[in-house]
């Protein structure tokens, strides 16, 4: 889908985080049961600069980033930290309106929406599509943290479907509580109590 078509509406995404894969590669290593189909989408490098204003956005469940030079906003619409639902916006006008609703001041993308950078990180992303519908993403940051995400672009029953998918192919996914990239970034320099 072209970027101009995306600007006309927001995307809905269901996302479940998981620990790094239990296998090195989903294409060459098989478990029981095997995926009905598995297709590698390749690797890409992503550079994100996250913005906020005195933690007002993150406290409201909104994350604004400049990803590879393009603005994006994610607005939490349900779930919890590891199993979440978001509305995603890529249209700068829509992003400005969302931010203005929280900080009370409308600003343009040229003004960085009145926000300040809070972190900058690069990620190597490996992606696959399993069973012709489930996108599996493994991100490794430039500071060495790895986290997986199981993504879908609609909210209807997807959370349950993702859970059943990960249970069926449990041989590929580690169990435990994953840590997101931003949490890992901010915790890495925090003093241990």
Fold topology:
Blueprint (H helix, E strand, L loop, with lengths): L2 H4 L4 E8 L19 E15 L3 H4 L2 E6 L2 E10 L3 E7 L2 H12 L12 E15 L3 E8 L4 E7 L5 H11 L12 H7 L6
Antiparallel strand pairs: 1-5, 1-8, 2-3, 2-6, 3-4, 4-5, 6-7, 7-8
Written description of the protein model:
Residues 1-9 have low confidence and may be disordered. Strands 1-5-4-3-2-6-7-8 form an eight-stranded antiparallel beta barrel. The radius of gyration is 17 Å and the shape is elongated. The termini are far apart. Strand 6 (116-130) and strand 7 form a beta hairpin. It has helices at 3-6, 56-59, 92-103, 158-168, 181-187, and strands at 11-18, 38-52, 62-67, 70-79, 83-89, 116-130, 134-141, 146-152. With 193 residues, the chain is of the alpha+beta class. The chain has one domain (3-187): Hypothetical Protein Pfu-838710-001.
Estimated share of beta-strand residues: 35-45%
State the CATH superfamily name.
Hypothetical Protein Pfu-838710-001
Taking the sheet with the most strands, its summary is: 8 strands, antiparallel, barrel
Fold-level CATH name:
Hypothetical Protein Pfu-838710-001
Instruction: Name the shape in a single word.
Output: elongated
Largest sheet strand order: 1-5-4-3-2-6-7-8
Domain count: the total is 1
- Return the average pLDDT rounded to an integer: 85
The helix/strand series, from N terminus to C terminus, equals HEEHEEEHEEEHH
Low-confidence stretches: 1-9
Q: Which CATH top level class fits?
A: Mainly Beta
Using DSSP, what is the number of strands? Answer: 8
The CATH architecture assignment turns out to be Beta Barrel
Radius of gyration: 17 Å
Question: What count of helical segments does DSSP give?
Answer: 5
């Amino acid at each position: 889908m072209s970027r101009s078509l995306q600007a006309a509406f927001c995307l809905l995404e269901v996302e479940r985080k998981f620990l790094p894969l239990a296998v090195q590669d989903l294409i060459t290593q098989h478990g029981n049961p095997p995926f009905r189909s598995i297709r590698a989408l390749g690797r890409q490098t992503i550079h994100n600069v996250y913005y906020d204003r005195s933690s007002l956005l993150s406290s409201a469940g909104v994350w604004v980033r400049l990803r590879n030079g393009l603005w994006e906003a994610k607005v939490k619409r349900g779930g919890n930290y590891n199993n979440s639902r978001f509305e995603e916006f890529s249209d700068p006008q829509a992003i400005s309106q969302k931010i203005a609703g929280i900080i009370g001041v409308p600003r343009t993308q040229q003004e960085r929406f009145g926000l300040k950078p809070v972190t900058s990180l690069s990620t190597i992303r490996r992606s696959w599509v399993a069973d012709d519908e489930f996108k599996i993403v493994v991100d490794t940051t430039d500071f060495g943290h790895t986290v997986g995400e199981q993504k879908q672009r609609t909210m209807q029953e997807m959370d349950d479907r993702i859970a059943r998918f990960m249970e069926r192919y449990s041989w590929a996914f580690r169990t435990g509580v994953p840590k997101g990239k931003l949490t890992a970034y901010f915790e890495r320099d925090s003093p241990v109590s």
